[in-house]
Amino acid sequence: MARVRVGTFSELADGRLHSLTAGGTAVIVGQVGEALHAARNRCPHLGLSLTTGPGGPRFSEGEVQCPWHNSRFDLCTGENRDWTPGFAGRNMPRWSRRLIALGRKPAPLTTYRVEVEGEDVFVHL
Ligand code: FES
Q1: What are the helix (H) ranges across 1-125?
Q2: Which atom of ligand 1 is nearest to the CA of 69?
């Protein structure tokens, strides 16, 4: 396990979802309540970016929505809350979810422990 400095608390605790590279790993960091949380920037559906895609990045109240097929995840726990309900930010008819899923079963995000020391923020990969 590696502990990697990813920035300062004041840079990262602004309510936006930040995309960064830590030790060669693509990571997202976002503020939920008073704390920062981090996860791998790779959707467990098809392995695509959670911050770059046709639906654009979406992050609200601790929830990340994939910009590709709209799967939603809890950034704190990685829990999957909805699996492939649409495309590019638009929801599709319920019957089409299995087609969009391409046979992939719901899976959680890989989350990382975040540590704050003074102003410095570290992620444990
Ligand atoms: S790649 Fe994220 S939901 Fe399909």
Answers
A1: 9-12, 97-101
A2: 3
pLDDT digits (tens, 9 = 90+) for 3-56: 999 999 999 999 999 999 999 999 999 999 999 999 999 999 999 999 999 999
Answer whether 66 contacts ligand 1 (Cβ < 6 A).
yes
In 3-state terms, the chain is what percent helix, strand and coil (to 5)? 10, 40, 50
CATH superfamily to which 3-111 belongs? Rieske [2Fe-2S] iron-sulphur domain (2.102.10.10)
The atom number, within ligand 1, closest to the CA of 70 reads 3
Instruction: Return the domain boundaries, the chain.
Output: 3-111
Ligand 1 centroid to residue 65 C-alpha, Å: 9
